[in-house]
Amino acid sequence: MTTTAANHAACAPAPLLSVLLSGERFWPMEPESLRDTGLSEPFLEALIGKSLHVQGSSSGRAIASALCLPNRILDPLLDRLKAQRLLAHAGSGPLNDYIYSLTEEGRRRAQTWLSECAYVGPAPVPLMDYVISVEAQTVADERIRRPDLVSAFHDISVDIGLLDVLGPAVNSGGGIFLYGAPGNGKSTLASRITTCFSQEIWLPHALIEGREIVKVYDPAYHRSIHGGQAASEFPHPYDHRWLRIRRPTVVVGGELTMESLDIRHDAVSHVSEAPLQLKSNCGCLLIDDFGRQRISPQELLNRWIIPLENRRDFLSLSSGKKIEVPFEQVIIFSTNLDPADLVDEAFLRRIRYRIEVTDPTEDEFRYLFQLAANQAGCEYNVRAVEHLLDKHYRPQNRPLRRCHPRDLLQQIRHYCDYHDLPLELRGEYFDRVVHTFFTSPRINRAHARCESPR
């Protein structure tokens, strides 16, 4: 447990605190009481009412499952809502359960609750619980070794010298610049880095701070693992408000805006969405094609210069309240431009590792073609590749790129499918497809005079 996490431990609910102090891996233990949830009775009553308004009649166990809380915590609240004549028994369920439905007054109250906040789903966890979880699961506490990195890149061609530079950079737990010509696999390198760390972490569906709910789980970035697969690792039942997920890799490119770096509040639903850096905590955040976003590098510098230094970020809730959250991920800036031309020295000082991803050698280019051919299910033809180099690369001093073997072979597949030919690496096939792959008016005119295949 980190020092900061230890400082927060005194504020943690009993289930979290017992796990943290025991020295075990982070495990969100099932709450034993309402107090352990960190939520108030009125909040949970409103969440029950909204859930029933959306679902209609439902059993007590189904309501508990929808809110991801134990039955024993919700049963007294259901009885209280029934006593207030907001709920009614609509029938009997199995195992001494009841079917509940909203009364007329209950529906009116639920509509009021929905107008105040339209969130319906798993009960959120308090912000402090989330902060402790990130600090207990951060990648900064892990150290990868050379075999880990080699294993992560086992099925792609990466120069060993590059891995030996990349490994210490990843172990720094900070920022990394990957720069070089387009098409050489910078994005692929970044996406593989997360696999070097322990693969699974816990993430809550949503957070609550004060009266504001912030959704964190995003299926676009978070791959859920069924709880039962992990349950055998620990003797404790787990809090179902949390999901077991793969360490996330969040990739954002030219669509990045300043708004996506802060909590986004929906004025209609009154539900907020976590920013990208929060969704990438305990994983990797890749800013792809850095320097071509809708915001300038200087704006991003001003926004992240303190979080990069202190590993803490400050976000604004819709109420105007500022909250402090962890900034705990490997953050990678991938760019085709020289970093010195993009940002000033103050920013570069906080991104201590600047790694150039160079063009492949001809030997590596041949090996990449061999890998691409194996993946495509066709035989590798060294003569056809030499023909490609002799005719379409060396005379034009055309740079080799790591993406070319895969992309050219895909062009050949499309050509062969169109002409009902078996997929093969042949020199004449390269002669045809390069004219639509490399941009050159002279080549395209020559392509127009090409004869149809026999």
Q: What's the short story on this structure?
A:
By secondary structure, the chain is of the alpha/beta class.
Task: Explain what you see.
With 454 residues, this protein is an alpha/beta fold. The protein has helices at 3-9, 14-22, 34-37, 41-55, 60-67, 71-83, 104-116, 127-137, 146-152, 160-171, 186-193, 227-231, 276-279, 297-310, 339-342, 345-350, 362-376, 382-393, 404-418, 427-437, 441-448, and strands at 58-59, 87-93, 97-102, 125-126, 175-179, 200-204, 206-209, 212-215, 224-225, 242-246, 249-252, 264-265, 272-273, 284-287, 312-316, 322-326, 330-335, 353-356. 44% of the residues lie in helices and 16% in strands. It has a five-stranded mixed sheet. A five-stranded parallel sheet has the order 11-14-17-5-18. Strands 1-3-2 form a three-stranded antiparallel sheet. A hairpin with a 5-residue loop joins strand 15 and strand 16. The chain is elongated.
